[in-house]
Amino acid sequence: MPHQIQEIWPAGMSRLAIPYSPAIRAGDWLFVSGQSASDLVTGLAAEAAVPEAFPYYQNAMAKQAAVLYGRVGAIVEAAGAKPEQVVRVNQWYVADMASPDYRKLDLTVNNKRYVQEKNRYFTKLSPPSTGIGVRGTLVEGAKVEADFTARLDGDMPEKVSAPGLPKPAAGFAEGVRMGKWVFLSGDLASDWKGNWGTGAYDGGELVGLAPEARTSGLFWGDEPCARQTDYILERLSRVAEEAGTSLALAVKAYVYLADPNDYSAFEDTWSKWFPDPSLAPARILVPNVEIGARGCRVEIGLDLLMPEAAHLKRPVVGGWAPKSKEPAAVRADDLIFFSGLMATDPGVGLAAEASPPPGLPHFGIPGKLQMRYILHKARRIADAAGVDLKQVVKATLYFTDLSLYAGAMEAWAEAFAGGHKPAVTAVEINRELWVPGCGVMADLTLYDPQEA
């Protein structure tokens, strides 16, 4: 196993004093850590900065994106891969959440020039992606961070697009098919037209929602998130069918909610599409983020298997039973996708072991205690799957406050001492996870080729 999991370090790249690898090659997979326009030593790279004397002559997002994709190109090349083998991109844009005037459902991100730089890198096919607004990243002044997943099995991704579905731009692909895998972009309940300039506007609320996803708000029980979730899953189902598969073979779901108060409405609709949690995909469900179209409250992306690989999808039973409607983890071919993990105890919320004693608040490092407990839960799930937790190859870590990061990385370093350092992305959401007191949520992927 160790020889099948390799750290990827481009020549000349600075080695950080944290448990970090720029990327991990695991069999035919490449997982690239979150990248920004940092020089990895002092913060924002000099070539990404806009001169203070001429602040309006250059665009900061464009400069940062150029530096970001320069580094991504070096990492992908060092792994022996090509840009067209990338099958998923996650973008984390820094929204204006620190402003006291910020409100849920605000739109504060302008990603136009980032997308222009991205298209200069992906010249043949723009991979499936998500774009989410967050409160912050680890680099002061960074406007965007992005991580990447690639498949290096010799095939090239084939574009998948469902006829008749609205698209945000010409040439946009809702997903790609590559061998036994299908990857679908994060989808919103938008027709990419909205109600501007239509009779549906008439001076009322301006939204980017598709007409079929709108609610009137005129009656009790009118839940916008439920309608939007159903609309999105219907669209994703059509794209999956166009690829030759179905949502029944979804193995991982990436779900983002702008407002945590929408949880129950979302979950009710989700359970209609996936009535048996043991057959549902593993799921990361992230609250308090910015969604990229006015009025849109939820975004959903999926990884799926093709029918000929259906036997390679199995839920992991044992170790931990989530309170929400998903399995603790799903084995899919040579990967094991975990559902999101927090330092929770089913009976009390935040686990006692994950926080200092109430009367001794300074006797412990909160980030370290929470991450240690999260990894304890993850280890129990890995044991139930018959896998060593040290086979984690990718992690996305969501913080309510990035001041918890340093302590969390101490626990992370302990867990992965003596082996490879997984690819990691860390971002800060807008202050609140699902359980009061929980400040860290982990989304983990393990590599285990026994089923390949």
Summarize the structure.
It comes from Cohnella hashimotonis. Helix content is 20%, strand content 25%.
Q: What keyword list fits this structure?
A:
452 residues; alpha+beta; 60s Ribosomal Protein L30, Chain: A; seven-stranded mixed beta sheet; six-stranded mixed beta sheet; 6 helices; 20% helix; RutC-like_sf; hydrolase; RidA family protein; YjgF/YER057c/UK114; EC 3.5.-.-
Q: Give the overall silhouette.
A: globular
Unreliably modeled segments: none
Q: State the CATH superfamily name of the largest domain.
A: RutC-like
Query: What is the number of independent domains?
Result: 3
**Oligomeric state of the chains present here:** single chain
Spatial gap, N to C terminus: 13 Å
Q: Report the biggest beta sheet as strand number plus sense, adding barrel if it closes.
A: 7 strands, mixed
Question: What are the secondary-structure elements, in order, as H or E?
Answer: EEEHEHEEEEEEHEHEEEEEEEHEHEE
Quantity of strands, as a count: 21
Q: What structural class do helix, strand and pairing data support?
A: alpha+beta
| CATH class categorisation of the largest domain | Alpha Beta
Enter the CATH topology name of the largest domain.
Answer: 60s Ribosomal Protein L30, Chain: A
Radius of gyration, Cα only, in angstroms?
21 Å
H/I helix tally: 6
Q: Architecture of the largest domain, according to CATH?
A: 2-Layer Sandwich
Strand arrangement across the biggest beta sheet: 6-20-19-21-16-15-14
Percent strand equals: 15-25%
Mean pLDDT: 93
How helix-rich are the residues, as a percent range?
10-25%
GO molecular function: hydrolase activity
Pfam families: Ribonuc_L-PSP (PF01042)
Keywords: Hydrolase
EC number: 3.5.-.-
